[in-house]
Amino acid sequence: MAGKKLSKGDKVEWETSQGTTSGKVEKKVTGRTKIKGHEVKASEDDPQYIVVSDKTGAKAAHKPSALKRKS
After folding, report:
1. Distance between CA atoms of 47 and 67, rounded to whole angstroms?
2. DSSP result, the chain
3. How far apart are CA 35 and CA 22, in angstroms?
4. Which of 17, 38, 48, 54 stands 20 to 30 A from 68 (CA)?
5. pTM of the shown model
């Protein structure tokens, strides 16, 4: 879903190899950054969101299309 707007603190869900997991948006990334040793190639035109898992506290970067806002 292009143009999806998420904000810090939004509750979201995403798919993992273990199934659906949930967490909160920590921040929007619009430039190259590293997370857990992996380079995130985000840009203004292709932003990603850093999310924190409710279950493990682990951080990960996801494209907006991979995230679904929870109500």
Report:
1. 12
2. -TT----TT-EEEEEETTEEEEEEEEEEE-SEEEETTEEEE--SSS-EEEEEETTT--EEEE-GGG-EE--
3. 18
4. 38
5. 0.88
